[in-house]
Design a protein that fits this description.
This protein is about 45% helix and about 10% strand. By secondary structure, it is α/β, with parallel strands linked by helices. A five-stranded mixed β-sheet has the order 5-4-3-6-7, sandwiched between helices. It has a two-stranded antiparallel sheet with strand order 1-2. InterPro entries: DUF8040, HARBI1-like, HARBI1_dom.
Length: about 500
């Protein structure tokens, strides 16, 4: 450090020095008897033996002494840090630096805060402060095992409170914290345990809350809230490979148990569709992301099972991009890791996609969506309409998955004020949490509301005896898989009608 910066840096150096005064060369802490409180600011002053005989130092002499002291502290801190890190990484340098970051409010209250510490000083100050803090201070919110009083209120309160605030049941929340802790994906800090870090993240995506609201709720600075949000987002996203898994190759139970779908769709393993999520973008990118409805959005390709779990998620495409183009881009790019489709198996897709090998689309130009079969003409009038209606009933599964996902995490219904890469990651993290809750929370209230109703039912034929069937199957048989399915389905439908 150059000498001309000595006086300018005096305020912050003194603050660091006073902190470091409590840690001697071998890492032991002082008793606290040799300090006094100054001006109500948690600033401490070391009482140096024999100091009463000294006159006041000049500003230059003080600056020189500070520089010398900092060099000594840096050397000691490096040795101390090496020893500390052997203790199960409990006092790592990265943690020390994070703690120093958390001290910004205290530093801002000082008269001189323009100093930018170099790496050596940062390591020295952070290691010393963290060590002193962990030895001599009580944890923040020591009366609560979870952190803030808000956390205790939720986790010690009724089950409905946890569902409302954290968007999952208590045991699911605690199990997830256990995974993040055991795998070292998140770590407790001096003031914020993993439970509180996860709660901050879930509050934001589960209620679309602003940083300022979360600051008040959890009693942390905006920087602390932002840092933990990003840390949890990264941790949850890293679980995607584990919780976004290829579907089983066996016939799904939801198809096997229904005579409307089995054996016709016995080789169907899932559903693919697009989900549009509102996006916040700079002006230069807005034209590309404006979808057909004129809304800025990201086009998210999704695949799910009939058990409402996501198989694959590909967010980030422009809202203006055609669904078939996004799917083709995924299939052409091995790095996207789209699950290999077993031979003879397929996904069902809607009219926005092409009828390709491994993907069965409905017949174009024929009634398809469920609402088109309501009212006077509920029953299909020809083989293509019958195929399309049952195809649409199965495809409804992914719409239910989207509805549950967005109901649980309303941040997906708006354009959050984050960088676009964060917006993309939020979609992935939300889907990971969706699957995790589906597996862990068998009694989850959102899934309970849709279980058994994900696949829309066609009214029983016995209730529609006045409907006239307009076609027979013999003109609609073909050699393609789709036509084979349609033919078998229509033949059985006719036989049921004849028996009636």
């Amino acid at each position: 450090m150059h000498k001309h910066t000595h006086n300018h840096c005096k305020g912050r150096y003194l603050f660091i020095l006073v902190i470091m005064a409590y840690v001697d060369e071998d890492g032991s802490s002082g008793s606290g008897d040799d300090v006094t409180m100054l001006d109500g600011h948690n600033k401490r002053q070391s009482v140096t033996p024999g100091g009463s005989g000294r006159g006041k130092r000049s500003r230059k002499a003080t600056g020189d002494a500070i520089v010398d002291a900092m060099l000594e502290i840096a050397a000691a801190s490096k040795m101390r840090t090496a020893a500390i890190m052997k203790n199960e990484d409990q006092f790592s340098i990265s943690k020390c630096i994070k703690v120093l970051d958390e001290m910004q409010d205290t530093l801002a209250s000082m008269e001189d805060f323009d100093l930018e510490l170099d790496n050596m000083e940062l390591v020295a100050a952070a290691a010393g402060y963290y060590y002193y803090n962990s030895i001599t201070r009580q944890p923040r919110h020591s009366s609560s095992p979870y952190g803030s009083s808000f956390m205790s209120e939720v986790l010690d309160g009724p089950d409905d409170g946890c569902r409302e605030m954290f968007r999952m049941d208590k045991h699911v929340f605690h199990n997830l914290c256990g995974i993040l802790r055991q795998r070292g994906m998140l770590r407790d800090t001096a003031g914020v345990m993993i439970e509180e870090q996860l709660a901050i993240f879930l509050n934001i995506i589960g209620h679309n809350e602003r940083n300022r609201v979360i600051q008040e709720r959890f009693q942390h600075s905006g920087e602390t809230i932002s840092r933990h949000f990003n840390n949890v987002l990264k941790a949850i996203k890293s679980l995607s490979r584990e919780f976004l898994q290829p579907p089983p190759i066996a016939t799904p139970p939801e198809i096997l148990s229904s005579n409307r779908f089995y054996p016709y769709f016995k080789d169907c393993i899932g559903v693919i569709d697009a989900m549009h999520v509102p996006a916040h973008l700079p002006a230069k990118d807005q034209s590309r992301f404006r979808n057909k409805k004129g809304v800025l959005s990201q086009n998210v390709l999704a695949a799910c099972t009939f058990d409402l779990q996501f198989i694959f998620i590909y967010p980030g495409w422009e809202g203006s991009a055609a669904d078939s183009r996004v799917l083709r881009a995924v299939l052409d790019d091995p790095d996207q890791n789209f699950p290999i489709i077993p031979e003879g198996k397929y996904y069902i897709v809607d009219t926005g996609y092409s009828n390709l090998e491994g993907f069965i689309a409905p017949y174009p130009g024929v009634r398809y969506h469920l609402h088109e079969f309501r009212g006077a003409n509920q029953l299909p009038r020809n083989p293509q309409e019958l195929f399309n209606h049952r195809h649409s009933s199965l495809r409804n599964t992914i719409q239910v998955s989207f509805d549950v996902l967005k109901t649980r995490f309303p941040i997906l219904k708006v354009a959050p004020q984050y960088g676009f890469h964060v917006q993309r990651d939020i979609v992935i993290a939300a889907c990971v949490l969706h699957n995790y809750i589906r597996r862990e929370g068998k009694d989850d209230w959102l899934f309970a509301n849709v279980d058994g109703a994900a696949v829309a039912e066609l009214p029983d034929i016995d209730d529609e005896s006045d409907i006239q069937l307009a076609s027979s199957i013999q003109d609609h048989m073909a050699f393609s898989l789709r036509e084979s399915i349609m033919g078998a389905m229509w033949n059985d439908f006719i036989n049921k009608w004849d028996q009636w």
